Amino acid sequence: MTIPTSDKPRQTASAPDFGEKRVRRYAARHFSVPPRAIHLQGLTPDASTRKYYRISTVQNPAESLIVSLYPTPFNPQDNSFLDVTRLFQLAGLPVPQVIDAAGTDGIILQEDLGDCSLTQWIDDARAAGDDDGVNEMYQRAIELIARIQKVSGLAEETGSVSSRLAFDVDKLTWELNYFFDHFFGSLRRQEFEPGKAEAIKCDLEAVATELAERPRVLCHRDYHGMNLMVDPRGDLRMIDHQDARMGPAAYDLVPLLVERRLEPADMAWVESQQECFMRARAKEGLPALDREEFRCEFNLMTLQRQLKATGTFSYQTGVMGRGAYYEKYIAPAVATILRAMQAAGMKEYPALRAALEGD
Q: Thinking of the domain 118-357, which architecture would CATH place it in?
């Protein structure tokens, strides 16, 4: 897995930790060189329990690979990243090549896709006035979502772990409770009057219950612009796909279009991208979706997904001390949530809305 260093906070220089030593020893074995001949660059993961490193030899730094380092050893037969990678490769989806899985070392060695995330590519293209290029790249990313959804049946046929996991009530509720704990607790240090916390959680449970009842397709699960890479050939590739699971058709489209923005996305543009998604599904031979029903699902999914993301940003800010990177996304995410609540066809969530508005 490649972590786009231009998008994410870098590790500060420090004495090598045990993880770095473990990676250096592994890299020396892989390249058949002494440990001192290894060039190692730490890449900070995005709110992940795994660590990532770019490795190469001092003699040939251009021939680099990516190490994903797990906290503990693992069984490659039970590893979700390897499982979903096999599924996606079987379906012809663009994921990095796995070169080695050293379970006893807690390491997966992968192709290096470079440092250009879709987020960075779009920022650069906009700065250069290349609006046509931006539109084309979004279209490619949306078409890729449809291709993922087309793999839903294959996931079940092959017994992939992704077909056995779903955004059910328990999973969605857990994510929303995480938001509650860290936005109102870790970040705001907010105490509620008796009964108010229960009312907010009742609204959150209602969101989870409604989404869990929606028809499900295969979802990447974290399909935002920093988990899509533009490789050196200009091809769009997916990373961080180990948590793929079954969920609503709108799930992956939401983070791509509305997440991690400093200003809420323009709704006319969002609706035009929803139409692009409809065409992409038709191109893949997937069943047509009712447009009004899909817009309602998209708004409800925006609500849940942005609440979940706000919980992550709040935890990273209030607990992990990474506010310099994450805090700026919180206010725009809350604004997006409140806007989704006001959309046509949305149910009322009065306690949650009042709490978000600060009442």
A: Alpha-Beta Complex (3.90)
Contact call for residues 241 and 88 (beta carbons, < 8 A): yes
Which DSSP letter does residue 7 get? T
Radius of gyration of the chain from Cα atoms?
Answer: 21
Task: Report which DSSP code applies to 48.
Answer: -
Residue 50's DSSP bridge partners are: none
> What string of DSSP letters covers 96-163?
PPEEEEEGGGTEEEEE---S-BHHHHHHHHHHTT-HHHHHHHHHHHHHHHHHHHHTHHHHHHTT-HHH
Cα→Cα distances 346→111, 186, 278, 304, Å: 43, 29, 21, 13
Q: With the C-alpha atoms ordered 88, 259, 359, 182, is the resulting torsion angle positive or negative? A: positive
Amino acid letter, residue 22: R
Across residues 121-146, what is the average pLDDT?
97
pTM of the model: 0.91
Q: pLDDT tens digits, residue range 236-275?
A: 999 999 999 999 999 999 999 999 888 888 999 999 999 9
d(CA 72, CA 179): 28
Residue 59: burial class (beta carbons within 10 Å; 0-12, 13-18, 19+): exposed
**Residue 359: per-residue pLDDT:** 52
Order of strands, sheet of 38-43, starting from the edge strand that comes earlier in the sequence: 38-43, 51-57, 60-69, 107-111, 98-102
Average pLDDT, the chain: 93
pLDDT-based confidence at residue 222 (cuts at 50, 70, 90): very high
Q: What is the pLDDT of residue 49?
A: 76
For CA atoms 229, 235, 240, 243, the dihedral sign is positive
Q: 18-111, what's its fold? A: Phosphorylase Kinase; domain 1 (3.30.200)
Helices (H) and strands (E) in the chain, counts: 14, 9
Domain parsing of the chain, residue ranges: 18-111, 118-357
List Cβ neighbours of 60 (8 Å cut-off, separation of 6 or more).
none
Largest CA distance in the chain: 65
The tokens of 254 are what?
A: 């939401």
Specify whether the CB–CB gap between 39 and 122 falls below 8 A. Answer: no
Task: Give me the amino acid identity at 171.
Answer: K
